[in-house]
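Researcher: We're teaching a course module on how sequence relates to structure. For the next exercise, students receive a sequence and then see the predicted structure as tokens, so they can try to spot secondary structure elements on their own. Here is the exercise chain.
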Amino acid sequence: MMSKTFKIRNIGRFEQYFFLTMGVLTMAVAYYFFVIPSGLVVGGSTGVAMILHRYLPTIPISFFSLILNSLLLVMAFFLLGKTEFLNSIYGSLLFPLFLAMFEVIVPNPQFGPNDLLLVILYAGMLAGVGFGLVCQYGGSTGGSDILIKIVKRYTPFSLRVSVYLVDGLIILAGALTFPGGINQGMINLLYAIVMVFISGKVSDSMVMGSQSKKAVNVITEKPKEIKAEIFAQLRRGVTEIQSQGGFTETKKTMLIMVILNTEYHMIRRIVATIDPKAFVYVTPASEIQGEWSSKEEVFVKNDEGRKAQGK
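Model: And here is the predicted structure for the students to work with:
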């Protein structure tokens, strides 16, 4: 019987930045040609830029986006650390540059009010595909994502609540400041919520299926090295199970962890770098009980304790 060996592919730097660029470009197309002309504020720093543009129409939205993203990058550096700053800088600066390019090439893309259904469908799909590509290749679009992470780190709110709080306030502000009046603004708010839902579903499917969390199982001969990197980069708990090959009877270790979809690219890179021969399989984590959501905080505290003890 012929067997096939599937290797975990380590993504090269050129491939990574190529698809990061394609992802950001796809998101810029969604916003510039669909979201911005319709007046829908769907959250993010671009939503804030659209609101500011309503009061200062002579200043391009791309300029507001660049300034806001730059300020958020500075906040990321001081409040989230150098790693988060470096992960966010490329997408944060590239997105407003694409917007500025479109403003020069196609100055006035137009969609009438009857096109809102098409806007949320196409913009939601395009934005979801773009964001999914960015997540798959280990990048970040920056913007309000930085603010959401700051809120999560420095408040007792979970990630989900932080997203609702930050983007929800931006969407509400967009509805209240809509030039067509509060009634049309509230209708736009409902459309904006649907678009956010569509883009979120599409990006989740792009990254790794429709489930928001996954159980990752890694069978490896280098468990200590992989575990150390997972602790350092993700602060995720890992369960070890001693295992043995049924045919070869080789002693190995199985590492089990539950992660978010957006964290999978980091797990894949860690395993591919340390042990390319490792066997990895992923399953949906449809139900989780226990203290999974607080594991990250536990490891942060433990790490701070070790530093204080000089370990």
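Model: If you want an answer key for the exercise: The longest strand covers residues 251-260. Residues 13-206 form one domain.
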